[in-house]
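User: Hey, quick favor. My workstation is busy. Could you predict this chain's structure for me?
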Amino acid sequence: MRTANPSARATAQNKRPLRYAMLLRCSSDDQALGDFTTIDSQRQINRRFIEERIAESGGTFTGEYIGEGKSGKDLKRPDWIAAYADARARKFDVLVISYMSRLARGSVYHAAEYLLHQEGVRVVMVKENFGSDTAGRILKDITILGDGLYIQKVSEHTKAKQSEMMEKGYICGGHRLFGFNHEIAPGMADMVLPGGKTKPAPKVRV
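Assistant: No problem, here it is.
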């Protein structure tokens, strides 16, 4: 089995222009809010950063990895698997993300960053800057904790909302029961979200 040597690779990187890749991710909760510009916004932020670095010191842009509608707490998602495979194949030196949570959320970020580091790949966050001193490390850990708690709070809020909806007779998933139809709840209608997406109206069993 090949053993990566991050220090040796870092030394080699200093002798040649860097190769940049970017990772873009939009979670399912972003999609639910109709945030259709999330991926485009990340791409513009990252592209601007990469172009500035290449103009200053040379280098190349190798491509992007997109995870649309994927949770940051999952390292089995296709965008991460592809990025990690290319990192192991030595296809890029720097992975650019707009914010920490775009790579991964909570403690999963530690795992993702560690795996990339073992392959000699440096992770750069365009919109978040953490120093290498004690204060910077503490701030980074606090941010990682906050990102993880965010997902937990969203889950709790969603479950509470679904519980209230079920008490009112609304359907919150599951199989259609034999002998019942699903109809839009009285007084409810589909809602058109920004970007043209449609949020279906809640339904009841009849």
